[in-house]
Amino acid sequence: MNATALIAEDEPLLAANLQAELARAWPALQIVANLGHGAAAVEAALARRPDVVFLDIQMPGMTGLQAAQALSEDWPEGAPLPLIVFVTAYDQYALQAFERAAVDYVLKPVLPERLAQTCARVQAALQQRRARSDNPAQALETTLAQLRGLLASNVGAAPAQLAVIQAAVGTAIHMVPVAEVLYFESADKYVRVITAEREYLVRTSLRELLPQLDAQRFWQVHRGTVVRADAIATAVRDESGKVLLTLRGHQDKLTASRLYAHLFKAM
Asked: Which of 168, 189, 193, 212 has the CB geometry, 3.0–4.6 Å to 200, for a possible disulfide?
């Protein structure tokens, strides 16, 4: 089967080995890019639109999971998302998350026998996708469902939940009750903390903050946005599958990506 693929792996020797093993296991597969970090992989994938993306889980800057999340949110409307294969050095306990999510993976160092199984599985999935090419929405929802399952998997013990955010304002430390936060938004190496009265900037990443929040009360609606569920007033879905959110007592409007649109369903 002819197909195109992109590799994102920050260790050059492992990246070269994966490309060489793929050439043996799947000679018809064309590698359109072999990149060393997640942000470049997302940019290249959006430009080249490969059929398959091999993502290293642990890359500097943007992890493989974050890259997959970015692709799902930024992918052009109407175009099928690439099939995603994660490359990981995780132990067996962590791999249970990949099994449950039905997203294929290969372990480092890559073994030819296991990679051959992955290639066969990906080829079968591509054949199924092409057979139902008249229903791209179904293919998109299948990929999004896999990503949701993986992002929701609980690997390791959860940290204690935050009750108060300590935000520096000049020489003062403001104690901001988490219950008063309307939403959190990623801003480079910081997170914007928005309450009804004002905005704070805290030096942490949304990735580090998210596990410390009550997932029943604070919903991630975008890779860079987490909103308090009871602060949402309305949710309106547009034609692309994204959802526009309005907040109670606040003029800001937020967008929930296609990956998280399933959170908003009438009872």
From this structure: 193
